[in-house]
């Protein structure tokens, strides 16, 4: 059954005191996986899931750990694994340990559905996934038919929370679009704005459309609105020239970091130096191979997590993540971590047990997810509505001297 969309979250003027996310230049990148993670992707038990046999919950995960979107999937997998390690060490969920099995979908819808079926055969009772939007939508049709509880850490398209068994940790695309326009308008960053977006991508289009409608409410004039597609996503000279000719003070980029890196380099070549503002898809920009991070100076983005925020939870998470994986976690790792702890809170609220089948667990969690509140890495006092949407305050950061800093 389709679910009604949640009303747009209003954006408060106060931005949480988050500090910088350290650039990954001095540490290993997310292009490789550890031996334990390779076992996880193949269905073998990882360190985070040493418990086996009867009396354990089976949590599955799906996302890209190879391919062009691997930085997202690997981060979610690792963040969730770290949370599961902690929970198991603390006694598990309602006294039961957690088994964890993460499958690679390569950001492909067909492979995501295949991964889902593999996890079902394994005995999955709850799903943390999928990581990216199109695979999440494809898997959602299957999980709804099976009444399998599905909590996506980072699938932001509206239809990633289409069914009543689906919840999400991140903001939806429309909420990101509206919040971006509100932030730009309320903080008077610019009145003349150009947009460059991917019309072939559900994530980019969803943010674009809501940003466009909200801009008028914020006194923002859209002076250039130019699209590209997956078939033409390397040369942005036309879009940038139109933005420059229009007198745009700020260019809004509701796109992924790989295309953003090209846009920033090509704008520099043209001598065009507007402000650039994006959403969570720009997280990862500083890790692009052979990218001159100086080009990203003063780029702004809405993102729910900054790795050197001073709160105790973030500091502990970052230190543990660095020790285990040798790199600084990004927001997707934080999303995965928060997703597992949300499941723990909802499971304990509902009193579910490991001997329950997936459908019975799903029925219980549909209710208890709307009754919990957690303090996570990506938001304080996070709550969820019955349509699966999170209620938390967004944050904005700026890249300064090669690191993410709070605005």
Description:
The chain has eleven helices and 15 strands. By secondary structure, the protein is of the alpha/beta class. The strands form three sheets. A seven-stranded mixed beta sheet has the order 7-6-8-9-10-14-15. Strands 2-1-3-4-5 form a five-stranded parallel beta sheet, sandwiched between helices. α3 runs parallel beside α4 (133-146) and α5 runs parallel beside α6 (202-215). It is globular. Residues 1-36 and 42-53 have low confidence and may be disordered.
The largest beta-sheet arranges its strands as 7-6-8-9-10-14-15
Provide the gyration radius in Å: 20 Å
- Strands, count: 15
- Low-pLDDT runs: 1-36, 42-53
Biggest sheet descriptor: 7 strands, mixed
Order of helices and strands: HEHEHEHEEHEHEHEHEEHHHEEEEE
Instruction: Indicate the percent of residues in helices.
Output: 25-40%
Number of helices: 11
Q: Percent of residues in beta strands?
A: 15-25%
Write the layout of secondary structure elements.
Blueprint: H1 35-41, E1 56-63, H2 70-89, E2 97-104, H3 109-122, E3 126-129, H4 133-146, E4 149-152, E5 166-168, H5 173-186, E6 192-198, H6 202-215, E7 221-228, H7 237-245, E8 250-253, H8 257-270, E9 275-278, E10 300-302, H9 312-325, H10 331-350, H11 358-368, E11 374-376, E12 379-384, E13 390-391, E14 396-400, E15 403-406
Helix pairs in contact: 2-10, 3-4, 5-6, 10-11
